[in-house]
């Protein structure tokens, strides 16, 4: 049990959310630009307009690996799992209802599908990642019991199986075990995190392995992404998901795990609120309204567009962090009121 969380890992949590949000910048803010460029056969420019797209799934997998690292080797009871799940769900529900109320006041009428997604965000899959993550949290007591006695060799064999059926199969449209952004790949990422926690010790060699894995797989993703855009004339490629993103994420995770452990209160404090960045920016009432403001129509220099996008994303993350501090204070106040009424 880690009483004080390693700030290297908490910094990585922040970076993972940065990757996810940059992905959404390319997908939602620059998607229209890339479609226009593809339609006019400017495929190299279209590639650059989607520059951050491959980072999203790397960020998702890293985020779940961190959960596996902290929880994967612990004996988590069913009651504790439920409490952790409810804690996550309470945060999800807070933002779902908050933006539903704001939408009712700003929009008329609210579409039925968005209404149900807000009232039951996991059941109606308002956020695919949240739905998968909540289910994963509920399964953790059983997953941990299943892997606690595995040897390193047995665990490695399990990772090979899971990486194949959840990381390679979806790339060839075989979704028998998982879609490329489904529960199966989240479970696989969780197991990678648990494997690191259980068997990987900090040394220079593991740092080097991580660097090589991250570099090679990220380069492969970008190369194949470019040629897929060339061949398919479509920005909706799937090469940045699955096994390549999983191995790139694992490499990045190894890099940070093998840095000298330290404690920085700022990193740990900010990391606690990073989940809110996803919940706010991907809310059904926020997503399109937010990202349409950052098309940067007046800019033709795509390097400058991406630099501006990075700046915008950092500001969005800061704003979400500040909003979530308020949410956290509200939760604490409600908890104190509940305690006082029970006495």
Automatic annotation (TrEMBL):
Keywords noted in UniProt: Membrane, Transmembrane, Transmembrane helix
Keyword 4Fe-4S appears in the UniProt entry: no
InterPro entries for the chain: Acyl_transf_3_dom (IPR002656)
Alphabetized GO MF terms: acyltransferase activity, transferring groups other than amino-acyl groups
Annotated ranges, domain Acyltransferase: 7-323
Pfam families: Acyl_transf_3 (PF01757)
Keyword Membrane attached: yes
Highest taxon listed in the record's lineage: Bacteria
TM regions (residue ranges): 12-31, 51-73, 85-106, 126-143, 155-172, 178-197, 204-227, 239-259, 271-291, 303-323
Name of the protein this chain belongs to: Acyltransferase 3 domain-containing protein
């Amino acid at each position: 049990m880690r009483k004080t969380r390693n700030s290297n890992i908490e910094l990585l949590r922040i970076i993972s959310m940065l990757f996810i949000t940059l992905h959404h910048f390319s997908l939602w803010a620059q998607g229209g630009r890339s479609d226009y460029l593809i339609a006019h056969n400017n495929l190299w420019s279209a590639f650059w307009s989607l520059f951050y797209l491959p980072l999203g799934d790397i960020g998702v997998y890293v985020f779940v690996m961190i959960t596996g690292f902290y929880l994967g080797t612990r004996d988590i009871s069913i009651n504790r799992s439920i409490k952790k799940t409810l804690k996550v769900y309470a945060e999800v529900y807070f933002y779902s209802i908050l933006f539903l109320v704001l939408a009712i006041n700003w929009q008329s009428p609210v579409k039925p599908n968005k209404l149900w997604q807000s009232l039951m965000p996991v059941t109606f899959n308002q956020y695919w990642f949240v739905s998968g993550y909540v289910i994963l949290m509920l399964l953790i007591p059983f997953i941990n019991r299943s892997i606690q006695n595995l040897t390193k060799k047995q665990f490695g064999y399990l990772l090979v199986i899971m990486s194949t059926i959840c990381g390679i199969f979806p790339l060839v449209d075989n979704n028998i075990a998982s879609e490329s952004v489904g529960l199966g790949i989240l479970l696989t990422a969780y197991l990678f995190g648990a494997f690191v926690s259980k068997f990987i010790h900090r040394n220079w060699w593991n740092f080097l392995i991580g660097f090589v894995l991250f570099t090679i797989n990220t380069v492969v993703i970008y190369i194949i992404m470019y040629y897929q855009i060339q061949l398919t004339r479509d920005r909706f490629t799937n090469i940045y998901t699955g096994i390549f993103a999983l191995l790139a994420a694992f490499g990045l995770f190894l890099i940070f795990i093998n840095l000298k452990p330290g404690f920085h209160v700022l990193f740990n404090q900010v990391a606690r609120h990073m989940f809110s960045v996803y919940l706010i920016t991907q809310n059904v009432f926020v997503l399109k309204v937010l990202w349409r403001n950052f098309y940067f129509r007046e800019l033709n220099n795509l390097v400058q567009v991406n630099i501006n996008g990075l700046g915008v994303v950092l500001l969005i993350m800061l704003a979400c962090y500040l909003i979530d501090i308020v949410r956290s204070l509200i939760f604490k106040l409600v908890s104190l009121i509940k305690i006082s009424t029970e006495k």
